[in-house]
Amino acid sequence: MEVSKIDYPQFFDLVSRRYSCRGYDSAPVSREMLMAVAETARLAQSACNRQPWMFLVIDTPELREAVARCYGREWAHEAQAFIVALGNSSEAWVRPCDGHNSMYVDVAIACENMCLAAASLGLGCCWIGNFDVEALCRELDIPACWSPVGILSLGYPKPEQAAPEKKRKNVDDVVKWGKF
After folding, report:
1. What is the span of the domain harbouring residue 32?
2. Can you spell out the DSSP letters for 12-63?
3. Which of 91, 95, 157, 176 has its CA 20 to 30 A from that of 164?
């Protein structure tokens, strides 16, 4: 089935343009821009409005280096800022029937808001999930009750950095109507 973007052209365009940027130029990102991105996380929905999150905005050279070392990929050292997304399981809603804790889902929703906000502001962003949790907690003095869920790298994409063609499954492969 062909998906039409006629009803939401701006949003569809934004989602289509968003990509995992892995090449940043050296232009700094203002705190105003970083706060604009972070504000979208604050506004995200969460189960029972528990908001079990905290976001560490990292923009000083020393702390940016510390975060980049916790990831270990060379391109991360080019990022002009990071947002470290933390979740607190004890603050999250828990589904009564099976004990599912919503913290990771809630934080992921907030992170996606920030990824889209970054794209809308012309910033590159990459959601990093493969990092050394213990080292990150040590470097940033993260208390034990907070779990790092993800790191968002931010910066202005290098001029030669182009959004790659998205390789996604066909909509008919991921959407079912009615019962499975």
Report:
1. 20-156
2. HHHHHH--B---B-SPPPPHHHHHHHHHHHHT---GGG---EEEEEE-SHHH
3. 176
- Structural domains counted in the chain: 1
Structure confidence by residue, pLDDT tens digits, 90-113: 999 999 999 999 999 999 999 999
38 assigned to some structural domain? yes
Query: From edge to edge, which strands make up the β-sheet containing 124-128?
Result: 53-58, 81-87, 147-155, 124-128
How far apart CA 40 and CA 19 sit, in angstroms, is: 18
Report how far residue 31's alpha carbon sits from residue 3's, in angstroms, rounded to the nearest whole number. 37
Q: Look up the CATH number of the domain holding residue 126.
A: 3.40.109.10
Tell me: the pLDDT tens digits for 136-163? 999 999 999 999 999 999 999 998 887 8
